[in-house]
Amino acid sequence: MTEGDVALACASAFIGQLERDGLTDACISPGSRSTPIALALARTDGIRVHVHLDERSSAFFALGLAKASGRPVVVTCTSGTAAANLFPAVVEASMSPAPLILLTADRPPELRGVGANQTIDQRELFGPYPRWFSDAPLPSEGPHATRTWVLLAVEAYHQACRPGPVHVNLPYREPLVPAGEAADLGDVGSAVPASLDGGETAGEDDVDGFVELVAGVERGLVYVGSLRSPSPFILDLAARLGWPVIAEPTSGLRVPGTLSAAQFLLSNEPFLDAHLPDVVAQFGAAPTSRAALGLVGSTPRLVIVDPDDLVADPHRRAERRFAVNAGRLAHHAIPRCPGTPRAGWLTEWVEADERARTAVDATVDAWGEPYEGRIARDVAASVPDGGVLVVGSSMPVRDLDAYMRPRKGLRVLANRGASGIDGFVSTALGVSSAGAGTTALCGDLTLLHDIGSLIWSASRDLDCVVVVPNNDGGAIFSFLPQRELPEFEELFATPHGLELGAICRAAGAGHARVEHAADLIPAVERARGAGGVHVVEVPIDRARNVELHAAVQEAVAAALGRTM
After folding, report:
1. pLDDT in tens, 473-492
2. Ranges under pLDDT 70 in the chain
3. 85 to each of 11, 58, 60, 90, how far by Cα in Å?
C-alpha cells in the first residue's frame, strides 16, 4: 500500500460524489502533484475531461461551460504558479457569478514554508472571491475516510451552486502514482446530494416594499442589466405599469416589445432631458454603457432588484435594493399594481425608439464599408434560433448593446463581472463545448490576448465562429480622453501589425477576411456550415470608425429633433 493508492482512493470518493451530485465536466492541466485528482476524474464514468496546457485558458474554458450549462464545472491543476493562473477566471466567476469548483493540488504541510520546489502558500490563495474554501486533509485510510471525502464533495458542490467559485486545496505526499493496491476507507454512510439554488424567494415584505415604490408612477422605466435567469414576468410587470423597457443583450430579455435603440435615446441629451424618469427599476447587474450609467445615476429614484446580491449600484443611488429572485418578485408584484393603459409617456418612448431605429439602420445600411456597429447588429441577427452569441468586453459588448435589434431565440453571454478581455477565446470555446451552436464577437486584441487557447483547441472537435473586427489595436481608447495624448498610439492603441490569417493557419483554424459589409454574414454562414473553429476577420480603420460612429449619432439626433 502506497501514498499514491490511498490518495487515488480518497480522490475517487470525492470525485464520485461530485458526479452523483451532477458534475459532468472537468478541465485539467498537466502536472505531477495533481496526479491523484486527475486520475480520479479521468476514470469516473459520466465526467467529460477537457485537457488544456495553460491553466488560465483551462479555467476560462470551464467558466464558459459553467455559464452555458448553469452547472458546476471542475478546474484542477498542480501546485505553485499553476494555481495562481486560475485567479482571473476566479474573479470573473465570482462577479458574474458562475459555478466553478477549483481543485488545486498542493505539497503536504511539512513542505510548506521551507523553500520546497514549486510550493507557494495556496491557502485562501484567491482571497475573498471564492464563496467557500477548504484546505483538505491529507489522504489517509480509516473507517470514516470515505465519509469525510463524500461530505467534502457535497459541501463543495452545494456552495458552488449559490452560484460562484469554490476552492478546495488538496495536499498530496509522494509517491503520487498508485501501485494498484486497494485502500480501506470505510463505509460512506449517508450524504445529502446538492441541488442548484434558484435564488432567494421574494417574501411578502419584499413584494410590498417594491410595489410601494413603483405602483401608480406614470413616468417610470424598467432597465434590465445582465441576468443569469431572465424572466418574462419582468416584461409583464413593465406592461402592467405602462413603462418602457430597456434590456441589455446579456439580460436575455432583448426581445420584441423592448426598446430597440435605447442607448441612442439615452445619449441624446435633448430627448433625455425631456424624458428623465421619476423612477427607474433596475433588474440585474449595473448598466454597461456610460449613457445608461448616467441615467441610473441621475434618476430621482432608483430601485434595484439584484438577485445575485452583486450590489449593482456604483453611484450608490438606490433608494432600496432587493436581493431576491427577480422573476418571482415581478410575478408577485403584478397583481398588486394598478393596470395602466398605454399612456403618453410610454407612447413617446416607443415612437422615439422607432425613429431612432429607422435612422440607425438607414445610415449604416447605406455604407458599403464595414462598421463595427453594423457588424454587431448583423452578427446578432444571423445566429440561428437556439444559438449562443458570446460577446467580448471593450467595444463589442457596447456596440451590441447599442445596435442589436430585439429578437427571440438568442442567448447572449459575456464576461462582464469584471469586464476583462482575458480568456475570451477559452470562454467561447467552453460555451461551445456545452452543446449549443456558438458564435463569438470580439476585438483583435481580445483574440490575441488568448491566442494560446485558439492554438490548442482549434482542432479539438469544437464548433465556434469568431467574428473579429480588426482595427489593429484598442478601438475603445479612440472614444476616451486618452486619444488626445501624444503617447496614444504607443501606450493605448497598441497596434500589433499581426496577420490573423497566418495565426489561424498555424492553429489549424479556418479563416476568412471580409472587406465589404454585405459579405460578412455570407462568410459567417459558410463558416458555420463547415463546422469547426473559424475566425472571420473584418478589417476596420480606427479613425474612420470614430467618424462613422459620430455620423450615426448625428442621424439619430436629426430624426429625434424633427418631432421634439
Report:
1. 887 888 889 888 998 888 88
2. 188-200, 341-342, 562-564
3. 23, 9, 10, 10
Distance CA 469, CA 452 (A): 19
Question: Phi and psi at residue 245, in whole multiples of 5°?
Answer: -120, 125
Give the domains, in start order, of the chain with CATH numbers: 3-171 (3.40.50.970), 204-352 (3.40.50.1220), 368-559 (3.40.50.970)
Question: Of 271, 290, 269, 293, which Cα lies nearest the Cα of 280?
Answer: 293
- For residues 74 and 25, the answer to whether their CB atoms sit within 8 Å is yes
Place of cell 482512493: 9
Q: Give the Cα separation of 96 and 420 in Å (integer).
A: 12
DSSP labels, 292-313: HHHHHHHSSEEEEE-TT-----
Give the pairing type, strands 301-305 and 387-391. Answer: unpaired
CA distance 428 to 426: 5
Neighbour order of strands in the sheet with 165-171: 48-51, 25-28, 73-77, 100-106, 165-171, 132-135
Handedness of CA 426, 411, 323, 397 (dihedral sign): positive
Residue 223 backbone phi and psi in degrees, to 5: -115, 125
Which pLDDT score is estimated for 282? 97
Q: What is the pLDDT of residue 564?
A: 52
Query: With contact defined as beta carbons under 8 Å apart, do 125 and 83 qualify?
Result: yes
- The overall average pLDDT reported for the chain is 93
Kindly state the percentage of the chain with pLDDT values over 90: 81
Q: Closest Cα partner for 289 from 251, 262, 313, 311? A: 262
pLDDT in tens, 143-153: 888 999 999 99
- Quick one: cell of 357? 431605429
Other Cβ atoms closer than 10 A to 289: 17
User: Exposed (0-12), middle (13-18) or buried (19+): which is 299, by Cβ within 10 Å?
Assistant: buried
**Please, what sign has the CA dihedral across residues 509, 405, 292, 301?**
negative
